[in-house]
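Hi all, long-time lurker, first post. I run a small reading group and we've been trying to get comfortable going from sequence to structure in the token notation. Rather than ask abstract questions, I figured I'd post a concrete chain and ask someone more experienced to write out its structure so we can walk through it together at our next meeting. Sequence below, copied exactly:
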Amino acid sequence: SDMDQGHLDLLLEETPDELKPKLKTKAGKLPNIDFENDSFVSIHCSRCLHFLKPDELIETIQNMYAWLKPGGRVYLITDTCFSGPWKNHLPEYEKKLKAGDPFPGFIEDVLDCLPVPRVPKGMTPHMNCLDPDTLSRECKSAGFEIITAKFFESLSKESINIRLIATSEVKVSCVIDSSLGGKALRSVSEAFELSD
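-- Answer (accepted) --
Happy to help. Here is the structure in token form:
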């Protein structure tokens, strides 16, 4: 699914003919798009959740849990306050986190962080930067078991941007800037308490 039918049309156009009968597309916006319960074995939601307000995020994650078949998995990638222009929100994030705000990464006005005079076309006026703890908490609350948040948390805390992710049943592979390879390895090794 995608909120832009044009993106879905392009996907259909690029899909090999023999796979087209297996592909179903649906345009819509989270959290209002709906699917039947127990419809998916996996959901990959990349760079979408941070555009939702906290109540919309909670509803969306609850919906995803219902949409998955038993034993299904969801793969989530979101923006955080640890990279990009959202770093400008980091002092406020830390202040809100210390005060116990359940969504410390929520930015009411993105112009507080962006170096532009007005909100870019198609962008929400707010941003919900999600740290691993916040996202894990909401996923657990919806019923999910968290299995890899520690890996991504270790990279995000070091401001290491992931350019590409590939996952399987037994591993997670990431493409990052080659100059950050050593830093990433040390960070992940420390997070999982691995020896040199």
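A couple of things your group might point at:
The chain has six helices and six strands.
The mean pLDDT is 89.
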